[in-house]
Amino acid sequence: MSTSNAPKEVAVVTTITEEDRKRLHHLRIDLGLTLQELGVQAWSLLLAKHRLPPLQEVRRPNARPVARRRRPK
Predict the structure, then answer these.
(1) pTM for the structure as a whole
(2) What residue ranges do the domains of the chain occupy?
(3) CA-CA distance, 45 to 51, in Å (whole number)?
(4) How far is residue 59 CA from its own chain's centroid?
(5) pLDDT tens sequence across 55-69
(6) φ, ψ for residue 26 (rounded to 5)?
(7) Are 55 and 6 a contacting pair, CB within 8 Å?
């Protein structure tokens, strides 16, 4: 039995079009973020718009670092 006071983590599933998935993929690569980090930023901005506190950052132990993509000159 765990005695940790850490909040329970849950998954949120969102269905989007393939075109939108590709745009989000390119954005996260350009920004050097994981999809998790990008999602937390987006949800936190929505919460801030409604004067609510941001989401807590949750780090997945198996998350891989993302290399930034070079933009063409």
Answers:
(1) 0.70
(2) 13-57+64-73
(3) 10
(4) 10
(5) 998 876 666 666 666
(6) -65, -40
(7) no
CA distances from 62 to 26, 34, 73 (A): 21, 11, 34
Query: In which residue are the tokens 């807590």 written?
Result: 56
Q: For residues 49 and 43, what is the distance between their CA atoms, to the nearest angstrom?
A: 10
The DSSP line for the chain is -----PPPP--------HHHHHHHHHHHHHHT--HHHHHHHHHHHHHHHTT-PPPPP---TTPPP-PPPPPP-
Question: Which range, of 16-20, 21-25, 33-37, averages the lowest pLDDT?
Answer: 33-37
